[in-house]
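Q: Sequence in, structure out?
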Amino acid sequence: MTPAARAKRMSEQKLREQVVRKNAETAQAVVHAVKAAVSSVAARGGGAVLLVVLIVVALIAAIVASPFGIFFSGESASADTVPISAAVAQVNFDFNARLEELQSADTYDDITVDGSTADWAEILAVFAAKVASSDGADATDVATIDADRIDRLKAVFWDMNAITSEVEIIDHPDSDPDDDADDSWTVKTLHITLTPKAAADMPSAYGFTARQTDAMNELLAERAMLEKLVGSLTAVCADAAELMKRFPADLSPERREVVRVACSLVGKVNYFWGGKSLVLGWDSRWGTIQKVWAEGNSTSGTYRPYGLDCSGFVDWVFYNVSGGAYVIGHGGGATMQHTYCTPISWADAIPGDLVFYPADMHVGIVGGRDADGNLLIIHCASSANCVVITNASGFTSVGRPTYYISS
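A: Exactly. Output:
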């Protein structure tokens, strides 16, 4: 195991230990049970080790089944589950669709957005307490984030976030009705208001039991850990995990790291025209509502959750791989990124190379090949409104970044 992998494993173990300590009742049970088991081992010999294992497994299972199971939600990489960070992106996708529906209902001279969405750490705490602490027949764990849990998360999100809108029309009359020129005009403004609810509002709204309220408050005491779940770059979706399993044996460490970092955003960051980020790790702006300031797109001038565009995604990947030392294309978009590549044939393409649409209208990163040998591309696609892994359809050229030569 490499030092980096060992450090990651130790960090994850520390996270689990913190979760256990926060659940006081369970933590005490763990301590007492382990002490008793150790005493038993000392008295009866090594055969009692099995007892210790069974006790620890049972206690971990109890924690996973509790609201604190949300801290284990990144452990599964099965095809029908996603990390919490990817579930949050799916909720943001629906939220963006609602915003777009309001903003495209008519033609407006101006659009304003007031307010903000509820804090995601609070949404997750309410979600976990509501779902995993329920005494109802539909209670379930929150360690496995599948389609059903995502639907429940969406329901909590919308219960904690209200969107209202109002159209303001101001008529400016003709400055001189007696002349031959009519210079009157009308200004139509769409005002969108976001009204969030705090976690403290939800126990009464949902009729929480005392146990559910306590669980919610205990989770909120670990707000920083919940925020890390939202911005997790360690847990990856099943498609990304499978892609990395197929790395060629002789693939260089630099290329492996480029694809690994690119995969860390799959399903987690929304598409945003003109979206860039020179931040090491998770950018706290992702998912926040911002105005699309870049021109040249149908979304220009509208509001949506902040994310990355295609070249911004590629910039972020190489910036993070290099520890902030390298920006491929030097911030000039896909066209400039292409100029910092050497043309190669499709047959020579390997993970970490870049692919482009005609006229450099879009860019992606070669992630590898599927079971049939077809190229797979990691890119931030406007059509999917997210970072995705797809086939090479639409891409017409491939280049080898000079980064690999200079690194």
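The two ends are 24 Å apart (CA to CA).
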